[in-house]
């Protein structure tokens, strides 16, 4: 420990290396914490900081991450690693150029992004997507706390539009019968990928054939889909943890999932041909993942309580609409991004209803 | 420095301002509409850049030659007539000699008439300055517009089609970035370009200040 | 009489922090010299009525000013006046009288006191309260026919006696009410009832102190003259601004004190002072103070003579090699006591010794947090029972993290006791947007309890920004919105500095 301390202290002083001061500081702060003390009141403060806050979000994502690694082997690990490295590069460059600290929010973006990708995504596309997401989704607006859209979603939508061929066709079933070498040791996991069974996602299957996937398969993740969104049990466990620690607000997932259920039930009753049954809608596609981990991003969702409910309900309605009546089979990402854009407006309306303007 | 001698102090200043200091796209955000529309391929960009430059220069000559004669009240209409005449020349020339490009660039040639750069320079500069200075200003603004357009077009064509001036340059297995062939791609790139250019401009002015 | 439970939906309960004072009470020796500030508790500074060199007895009035709103101050020891001067006391300059003590412990009785106080007239009781100095208790004094508060006894509509203790460390009411204390307290209540005959009385206690509640409810007079409530000790429920609307409804007149709406809020010790003054003739020369926090060797209650230098009080109880920060009354809003030569006055309830944690911890952010407190449930301590002995939470002064931009986690909004949106106000003030929008978002409702700064994961001093916004608004000529109800004693209130 002392050696690390000495090493860090000397790094601050070496002329060329200390250009990377944000990085050194970030490591320093993560390893040793702060030596600052409170000045005026309050004399004692809460033990939480953004590092811990974000760590909880990451811990909540861990079950889904582990499931994706279990399903897709080395490939999943590589995609996650590339996402972290490329995203961190952008974050770091901005910290250096604009002379601010490296903010921890990126740690969550860098993990959410790979989890919403198809497992076959080429690694360079992963890098392009996450860099675009961090750059245009976050840094462009002034960095953490000021972004309008969820950076991971911006990156995901960008590559969906930029590379439709890669992003819409190639879904995979979890790789279960590949050999150990193929799944875990082959660089880039290409052999395993080519051996795996390509399949349509449950929502796409439903759209064409009206066949509903079985619930055990949906729950355990034995379906095609994005890397992290298939194993719903893992997502629900992580999501509940997130709600419990208060790192994610419970209002948005509850109202989002609830409104999907209600709206799908009503829709399915009147228009059974176009709207899927509610139970299936809840567990298919990226709804669980989106509701627990992407819609709850505190920066891009409304901060008022009423606004949070509105946000969740409108997300749910949009999701069902897009799933049922558009050319896309999945609508979670689109609806969250659309609602991200409306979040400031929702807050504005809630505030103007709650606080009447003062006459001066 | 040679340039400075040839153009004289004022001329040099005009050129410097036009090409960088008061760049029509980066600083004034003029001509954005056509920059977004025709920057998907380099050849279109070249044609558009050349067309705009030509119209600019010709307008500069006419307007500044007639600047004492144009009545104040009808000056905008006068600009329009002058600009429109030259735009029609450009359009017909393209149709006659480069029918492919003419088809690709389509209505945007006609829309040069309303290109803010030309109207803007006519109102801001040509109407007040002598012919030689006006021409210098027109050329430098035209060049600035063209190089911006070409720069963006190079990136868009490379990423979006994997080609450059129609020739395949990207290696096999290259995946086209569909988004770059659409308007949103141009938005992102132009936004980035303006961002970087302004950052450099700011850094420069800080140094001088 | 069974107490009624009042739920307070906001605020934050500080549970199980280390350094709670134990039930032990010791008497601090009479110091060699005391310094009596001429302004203690509520009221204006009084003028000295003694000369240097004069002999005084403990309990003798040494400063009074019957004209302005104030209460007399007393010598707390027998001895000789050494000096009359000025000291810098808790951030303001006040006159102070230094007295050399002769070490004897007896004190002079107030004239006219009687253990059979029922025979005394309300007027006489009021005079005794005023002369004893107990009239300066509470945030706006106890109203008497003399100028001890901004309103007269007849104007009082409600009296709230509270022993909640929602701070991180609290003086234990058990210590005050031990033995005869409880009956004295009940007597004190009756005395106050006689002075403010027209007022309704309310007693609030901490919900978790079950045995005390039981005893009190048995002893309380059954004639329904006193409403008895319990509350969960969520900080800052015992602040006047929160407690008054919670019990009585209505709105607190922000920018003024409870007295202006005819309410008197007192703590248990103030009631005991009243009893001692009227029944025993004892002036306010002694007070019980809790020494708490991990910095003290022994966490206990001390009974001390007012004016004792702080150093004399804590001397035997601290280790010289520890870096300590002494905080007055509250870890969240209290002042830092850096000058140990300063005297203890009537406003002292707790003195907390915190450890200055200016050393870094390896992997501080990733530790499980068995002994850390957090509003979020990201620390394991949130899984343990409220009073687990093994995992008492530490309290040091480390900020536990780096300053970051606001991420709209809404923790501050959830805990805010007055339902404003601290982070929204912070965003405005940080960008220097100081305009009527701040008024619209009710910036002047803020009671500066500092809870928003406490819970912020981005370590933003939210409360500081709100204070800055308030002063910015006032300097730009905006006014604190006037309360809807008519206020009492406004002129007197404004005459108090």
Model description:
The complex is a heterotrimer of chains A (360), B (209) and C (497). Chain A is an all-alpha fold. Helices cover 64% and strands 0% of the residues of chain A. The longest helix of chain A is centred in the N-terminal third of the chain and has 24 residues, at 74-97. By secondary structure, chain B is mainly α. Chain B has one domain (14-208). Chain B is 75% helix and 2% strand. In chain B, a hairpin with a 2-residue loop joins strand 1 (163-164) and strand 2. Chain B is globular. Chain C is α/β, with parallel strands linked by helices. Helix content of chain C is 22%, strand content 18%. Chain C has 13 helices and 17 strands. Chain C has helices spanning 122-132, 173-176, 181-195, 210-219, 240-248, 268-280, 310-314, 411-415, 422-430, 436-440, 451-455, 462-475, 490-495, and strands at residues 4-6, 25-27, 33-37, 47-48, 55-56, 61-64, 73-74, 79-89, 92-101, 158-163, 200-206, 226-231, 263-267, 286-292, 300-305, 324-328, 350-355. The longest helix of chain C is centred in the middle third of the chain and has 15 residues, at 181-195. Chains A and C meet through helix 2 and helix 3 of A and helix 10 and helix 11 of C.
């Amino acid at each position: 420990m002392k050696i690390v301390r000495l090493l860090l202290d000397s790094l601050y002083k070496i002329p060329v290396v200390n250009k990377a001061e944000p990085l050194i500081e970030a490591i320093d702060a993560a390893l040793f914490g702060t030596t600052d003390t409170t000045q005026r009141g309050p004399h004692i403060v809460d033990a939480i900081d953004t590092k811990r806050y974000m760590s909880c979000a990451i811990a909540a994502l861990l079950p889904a991450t582990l499931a994706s690694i279990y399903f897709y082997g080395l490939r999943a690990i590589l995609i996650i690693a590339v996402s972290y490295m490329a995203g961190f590069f952008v974050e770091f460059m901005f910290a250096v150029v604009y002379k601010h600290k490296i903010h921890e929010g990126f740690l969550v973006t860098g993990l959410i992004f790979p989890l919403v990708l198809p497992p076959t995504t080429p690694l360079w596309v992963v890098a392009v997507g996450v860099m675009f997401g961090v750059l245009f989704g976050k840094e462009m607006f002034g960095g953490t706390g000021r972004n309008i859209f969820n950076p991971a979603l911006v990156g995901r939508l960008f590559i969906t539009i930029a590379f439709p061929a890669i992003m819409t066709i190639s879904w995979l079933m979890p790789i279960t019968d590949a050999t150990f070498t193929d799944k875990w040791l082959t660089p880039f996991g290409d052999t395993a990928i080519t051996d795996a069974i390509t399949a349509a996602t449950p929502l796409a299957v439903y759209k064409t054939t009206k066949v509903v996937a079985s619930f055990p398969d949906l729950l355990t993740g034995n379906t095609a889909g994005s890397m992290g969104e298939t194993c719903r049990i893992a997502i629900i466990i992580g999501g509940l943890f997130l709600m419990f620690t208060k790192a994610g607000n419970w209002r948005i997932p509850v109202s989002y999932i609830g409104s999907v259920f209600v709206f799908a039930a009503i829709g399915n009753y009147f228009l059974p041909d176009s709207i899927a049954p509610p139970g299936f809608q809840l567990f298919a596609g990226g709804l669980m993942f989106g509701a627990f981990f992407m819609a709850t991003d505190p920066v891009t969702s409304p901060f008022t309580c009423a606004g949070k409910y509105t946000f969740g309900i409108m997300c749910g309605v949009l999701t069902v609409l897009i799933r049922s009546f558009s050319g896309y089979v999945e609508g979670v990402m689109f609806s969250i991004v659309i609602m991200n854009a409306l979040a400031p407006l929702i807050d504005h309306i809630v505030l103007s209803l709650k606080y009447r303007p003062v006459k001066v | 420095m040679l340039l400075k001698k040839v153009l004289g102090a004022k001329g040099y200043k005009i050129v410097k301002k036009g090409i960088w200091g008061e760049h029509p796209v980066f600083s004034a955000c003029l001509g954005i509409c056509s920059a977004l529309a025709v920057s998907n391929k380099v050849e279109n960009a070249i044609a558009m850049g050349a067309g705009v430059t030509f119209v600019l220069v010709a307008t500069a000559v006419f307007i500044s030659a007639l600047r004492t004669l144009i009545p104040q009240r009808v000056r905008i209409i006068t600009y329009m007539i002058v600009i429109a005449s030259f735009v029609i020349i450009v359009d017909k020339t393209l149709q006659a000699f480069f029918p492919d490009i003419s088809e690709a660039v389509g209505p945007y040639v006609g829309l040069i008439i309303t290109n803010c750069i030309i109207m803007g320079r006519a109102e801001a500069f040509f109407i007040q300055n002598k012919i030689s200075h006006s021409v210098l200003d027109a050329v430098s603004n035209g060049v600035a517009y063209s190089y911006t357009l070409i720069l963006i077009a190079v990136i868009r064509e490379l990423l979006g089609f994997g080609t450059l001036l129609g020739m395949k340059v990207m290696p096999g297995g290259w995946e086209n970035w569909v988004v770059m062939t659409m308007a949103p791609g141009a938005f992102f790139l132009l936004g980035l370009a303006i961002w970087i250019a302004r950052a450099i401009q700011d850094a420069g002015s800080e140094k001088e200040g | 009489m069974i107490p009624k439970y009042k739920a307070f939906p906001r605020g934050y309960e500080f549970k199980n922090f280390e350094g709670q004072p134990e039930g032990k009470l010791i008497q601090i020796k009479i110091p060699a010299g005391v310094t009596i500030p001429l302004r203690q508790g509520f009221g204006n500074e009084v003028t000295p009525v003694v000369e240097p060199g004069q002999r005084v007895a403990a309990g003798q009035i040494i400063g009074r000013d019957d004209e302005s709103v104030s209460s007399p101050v007393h010598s707390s020891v027998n001895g000789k006046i050494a000096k009359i001067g000025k000291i810098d006391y808790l951030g303001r300059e006040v006159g102070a009288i230094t007295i050399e003590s002769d070490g004897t412990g007896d004190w002079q009785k107030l004239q006219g006191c009687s253990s059979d106080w029922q025979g005394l007239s309300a007027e006489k009781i009021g005079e005794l309260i005023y002369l004893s100095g107990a009239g300066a208790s509470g945030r706006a004094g106890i109203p008497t026919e003399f100028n001890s508060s901004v309103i007269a006894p007849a104007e009082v509509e409600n009296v709230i006696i509270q022993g909640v203790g929602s701070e991180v460390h609290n003086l234990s009411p058990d210590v005050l009410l031990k033995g005869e204390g409880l009956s004295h307290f009940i007597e004190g209540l009756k005395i106050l009832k006689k002075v403010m005959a027209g007022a309704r009385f309310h007693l609030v206690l901490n919900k978790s102190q079950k045995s005390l509640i039981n005893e009190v409810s048995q002893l309380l007079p059954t004639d329904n003259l006193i409403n008895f409530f319990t509350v969960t000790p969520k900080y800052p429920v015992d602040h006047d601004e929160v407690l008054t609307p919670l019990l009585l409804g209505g709105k607190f007149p922000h920018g003024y004190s409870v007295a202006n709406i005819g309410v008197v809020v007192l703590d248990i010790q103030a009631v005991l002072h009243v009893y001692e003054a009227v029944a025993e003739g004892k002036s306010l020369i002694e007070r019980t103070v809790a020494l708490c926090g991990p910095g003290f060797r022994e966490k206990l209650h001390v009974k001390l003579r007012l004016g004792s230098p702080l150093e004399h009080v804590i001397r035997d109880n601290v280790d010289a090699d520890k870096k300590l920060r002494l905080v007055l009354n509250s870890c969240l809003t209290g002042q830092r006591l850096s000058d140990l030569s300063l005297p203890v006055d009537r406003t002292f309830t707790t003195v907390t010794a915190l450890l200055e944690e200016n050393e870094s911890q390896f992997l501080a952010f990733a530790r499980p947090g068995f002994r850390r407190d957090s509003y979020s449930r990201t620390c394991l301590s949130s899984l343990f029972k409220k009073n687990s002995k093994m995992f008492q939470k530490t309290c040091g002064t480390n900020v536990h993290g780096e300053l970051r931009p606001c991420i709209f986690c809404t923790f501050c909004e959830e805990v805010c006791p007055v339902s404003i949106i601290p982070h929204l106000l912070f965003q405005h003030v940080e960008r220097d947007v100081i305009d009527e929008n701040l008024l619209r978002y009710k910036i002047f409702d803020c009671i500066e309890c500092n809870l928003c700064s406490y819970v912020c994961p981005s370590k933003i001093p939210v409360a500081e920004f709100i204070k800055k916004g308030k002063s910015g608004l006032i300097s730009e000529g905006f006014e604190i919105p006037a309360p809807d109800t008519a206020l009492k004693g406004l002129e007197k209130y404004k005459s108090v500095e």
